[in-house]
């Protein structure tokens, strides 16, 4: 007769030992969601303005009569200015990562998109420098030198790279601090666990 009472007492004591166990999954899910988000703060305005400036640079001449949209589509104006591969790759990367991925990262505030924007704009920055250099030094390029649109796009991509680096780096530092705090809290919980062997 005492066995059922013993089982109910054991169940009650287990429930009393950790009342938060039922909420632990919700806390973990919320923590994972927060860890995957960014908070750019005032940098969001700088990034948004830089994206608008980058889009505006596509309307300015990149080389002679060819503007950024001509380089993207490689129409007759771009062909007449002998736009070579580094310029075309730079403009495409600037559009994909500097404009589209940057805006998606700002709207969704996802850390993964911010990291993608950083990586893409960093590569774009190198290709932009190569595009400007190739317009100035390649002897077989029959066309005008680098236009104001190309230079402005390259400078804007540098600004975007710097600001995405600051956002991603600060988010990484916060994530590392949160993980360290979680480890310390778990260690404290293990120290006070009633099942721990002394």
UniProtKB/TrEMBL annotation:
Keywords: Membrane, Transmembrane, Transmembrane helix. It comes from the Bacteria. Residues 1-22 are annotated as: Disordered. The chain crosses the membrane at residues 42-63, 83-105, 112-133, 145-165. Residues 1-10 have a biased composition (Basic and acidic residues). This is Transmembrane protein. It comes from Rhodococcus triatomae.
């Amino acid at each position: 007769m005492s066995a059922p009472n013993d089982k109910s007492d054991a169940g009650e004591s287990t429930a009393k030992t950790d009342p938060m166990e039922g909420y632990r999954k919700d806390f973990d899910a919320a923590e994972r969601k927060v860890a995957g988000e960014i908070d750019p703060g005032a940098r969001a305005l700088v990034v948004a303005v830089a994206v608008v400036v980058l889009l505006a640079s596509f309307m300015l001449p990149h080389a002679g009569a060819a503007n950024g949209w001509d380089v993207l589509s490689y129409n007759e104006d771009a062909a007449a200015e002998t736009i070579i591969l580094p310029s075309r790759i730079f403009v495409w990367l600037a559009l994909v990562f500097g404009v589209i991925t940057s805006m998606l990262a700002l709207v969704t505030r996802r850390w993964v998109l911010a990291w993608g924007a950083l990586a893409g704009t960093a590569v774009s920055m190198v290709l932009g420098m190569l595009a400007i250099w190739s317009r100035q030094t390649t002897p077989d390029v029959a066309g005008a030198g680098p236009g104001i649109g190309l230079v402005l796009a390259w400078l804007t991509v540098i600004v975007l790279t710097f600001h995405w680096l600051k956002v991603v780096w600060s988010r990484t530092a916060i994530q590392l601090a949160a993980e360290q705090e979680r480890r310390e809290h778990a260690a404290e919980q293990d120290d006070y666990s009633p099942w721990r062997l002394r």
